[in-house]
Amino acid sequence: MSFRKIELSELSFNPFEKIGKEWMLITGGTMEKFNTMTASWGQLGVLWNRNVLTCYIRPNRYTYDFVENGDTFTVSFLGEEYRKALAYCGSHSGRDCDKMAETGLTAAEFDGAAGIEQAELVMVCRKLYSYDMNSAGFLTDDGIQAQFFGSDPYHRAYIAEIVGVYAKDNK
Predict the structure, then answer these.
(1) What pLDDT is recorded for position 63?
(2) What is the pLDDT of residues 15-71, one digit of tens each?
(3) Which of 14, 52, 117, 119 has the largest CB neighbor count within 10 A?
(4) What are phi and psi of 93, to 5 degrees?
């Protein structure tokens, strides 16, 4: 499968559908060593006059170390035919299994970062800023903490500039 590099301005999709309903794979690391995880939380927008993606990773996730220790990571958007693979990558740890072997997904290199070969769209993201979420940051008491955290650790947020966009070349 081949990809072509496109301009961010060529994209036209609903980010609420793309991230929240279709999901994405966040992949940290290089082709030599990487891990990927499914995410359905994130934002796309403009900050500091840059096109950015914000994603959230709990520190107990295996992918966290790869994203934390690298300068870049990728987000890959796959078609509906990969829903089972996305579900698997969101419910199993790369510490305990080989997600690529278990799902049939394969890695590909995008500007030096590992991404997913079967993706329809891959964004290469360069980390700009991170912060740790915590209970003191909540301004309402409408059940979010109880529903999404409980005994799980709070996420680290990564604000990253989108420095490359690759679309599946259907030629």
Answers:
(1) 97
(2) 999 999 999 999 999 999 999 999 999 999 999 999 999 999 999 999 999 999 999
(3) 119
(4) -95, 135
The dihedrals phi and psi of 50, each to the nearest 5 degrees, come to: -130, 150
Tokens of 19: 């991230």
Please answer whether residues 67 and 28 qualify as being in contact, where contact means their C-beta atoms are separated by less than 8 angstroms. yes
> Residue 101 sits in a domain of what CATH number?
2.30.110.10
How far apart (Å, rounded) are the C-alpha atoms in residues 1 and 93? 27
Q: Write down the mean pLDDT value for the chain.
A: 95
The whole domain housing 112 covers: 3-168
CA distances 122 to 41, 73, 153, Å, are 16, 10, 28
For 121, the token pair is 């769209």
Report the domain count for the chain.
Answer: 1
Distances (CA, A) of 81 to 21, 22, 84, 105: 14, 11, 8, 12
Find all residues with CB under 8 Å of 22, minimum gap 6, and list them: 77, 78, 80
